[in-house]
Amino acid sequence: MDGTNHTVVSEFVFLGLSNSWEIQLVLFVFSSMFYAANVMGNSLIVLTVISDSQLNAPMYFLLANLSFIDLSVSSVISPKMIYDLFRKRKVISFGGCIAQIFFIHVIGGAEMVLLIAMAFDRYVAICKPLHYLTIMSQKMCILLLAASWLIGLIHSMIQLIFVLKLPFCGPNVLDSFYCDLPRFIKLACVDTYRLEFIVTANSGFISLGSFFILIISYIFILITVRKHSSGASSKALSTLSTHIMVVVLFFGPCIFVYTWPYPTSHLDKILAIFDVLLTPFLNPVIYTLRNKVMKMAIRRVCSQFLVHRSISQMTKVL
């Protein structure tokens, strides 16, 4: 691999999810419903946190940013996937493929760091409640958010620096419905063993490492809480179980796709659909259904919207 760009491939062809018309119809309905629910659910959380003054705690600031990230990662892949379902030739330009890889890894890296930030927030709230507002100040929240996006950007750029130097001069068929590094680099016209190792180390080990950091931190919090009253322990367990569910849903497919040594296209596609459509949809459901304050705030925002809409309609009539 020299530093020269020998790329002659101008587009890539996706094999997609299925060639069966019936299965494509089911996938179209399924994908459209979940993507619409994802957009509405995550947008509602962001809007609620921004507009409701009672949700000015750091936890809700981080939650709103998690919803924005979930909405972003789904929007990078889902619209193209839904559009391609009934197309005979599913193609994406070389630049479009690189852009998709770039945004997937920027957003994915940012979400990993943000989930760690949310675990830190819960640790301070549960184990050091008297110092919570001092430690989790507005400045700290902004720094954590900036760090998450910066680390995501660095994570993505490190991989793309190597990928952009690869020559693509022959096969251009991807057995997938979106562009990602493991299958993309296999189409290069050179031996990519070392680069595949770099991708595994960068994406796989970071995913695995972040996952274990989060699980260990939650275990530490629970051990600390056990020393307090049973009521505090029960409340902490209820709060942490929500975060643990989100962590498992996000990291499970990522760890499998980037670290499993025997990739299977069908299983990878199923896990990708889960990560792109189901996880971003389930995150707002999990957080809102298990958080009374959030549910009440959503009701207030919806009520204010309905009242404002009714007044606007009455004004138009008069």
In total, the number of strands is: 3
Topology as H/E string? EHHEHHHEHHHHH
The portion of residues forming beta strands comes to under 5%
Residue runs with pLDDT of under 50 for 5 or more positions: 1-5
Alpha carbon gap, first and last residue: 73 Å
Radius of gyration: 22 Å
The best one-word shape is globular
Outline the biggest β-sheet.
3 strands, mixed
Summing up helix and strand content along with how strands pair, one would put the structural category as mainly alpha
Question: How do the strands of the widest beta sheet line up side by side?
Answer: 2-1-3
* Average pLDDT taken over every residue: 82
| Number of discrete helical segments | 10
Helix-residue proportion = over 70%
Give structural notes:
The protein has 318 residues and is mostly helical. Helices cover 75% and strands 3% of the residues. The protein contains 10 helices and 3 strands, in the order βααβαααβααααα. It has helices at residues 21-51, 58-84, 94-127, 132-135, 138-163, 181-184, 193-225, 230-259, 265-289, 292-317; strands at residues 11-14, 90-93, 173-174. A 3-stranded mixed beta sheet has the order 2-1-3. Helix 1 (21-51) packs parallel to helix 9 and helix 1 (21-51) packs across helix 10. The longest helix has 34 residues, at 94-127. It is globular, with a radius of gyration of 22 Å. Mean pLDDT is 82; it is low at 1-5.
